[in-house]
Amino acid sequence: MPNIGPLELAIVLVIALVIFGPKRLPDLGRSLGSGMREFKDSISGKNEEEDLDETKRELTKQSPATTADGPAEADPEPVEADVVSDGR
After folding, report:
1. Alpha carbon distance, N-terminus to C-terminus of the chain
2. E strands of 1-88, at which residues?
3. Which position among 28, 38, 67, 81 has the lowest Cβ density within 10 Å, counted as fewest Cβ atoms?
4. Number of C-alpha atoms within 13 angstroms, CB side, residue 47?
5. How far are the Cα atoms of 79, 85 from residue 82, in angstroms, in the given order?
6. pLDDT tens track for 50-87
7. What are phi and psi for residue 83, nearest 5 degrees?
8. How far apart (Å, rounded) are the C-alpha atoms in residues 79 and 70?
9. Is 25 exposed, middle or buried, given 0-12, 13-18 or 19+ CB atoms closer than 10 A?
10. Residue 38 Cα distances to 4, 27, 42, 46, 74, angstroms
11. Separation of alpha carbons 26 and 56, rounded Å
């Protein structure tokens, strides 16, 4: 099997540029990259639900958000209010 060196790679890139044009080439690269990423994730058994769960766990481990007045309360107390009608 022949080795692909920098000269062969440059020739392939020039041919792709001539065939697809400079406007479509970034879109093709982006779609190729996302396709390879999806293939790799499907092979490794990783899915989006696991990613979301992992992100949620990381966010809950972080300290509570701070506001302009200072640190936010972890569990704010519920506010009770009376409903006032104007009698119309």
Report:
1. 88
2. 66-67, 70-71
3. 81
4. 2
5. 10, 10
6. 666 666 677 676 655 555 555 555 566 767 777 777 76
7. -90, 125
8. 20
9. middle
10. 25, 16, 6, 9, 37
11. 32
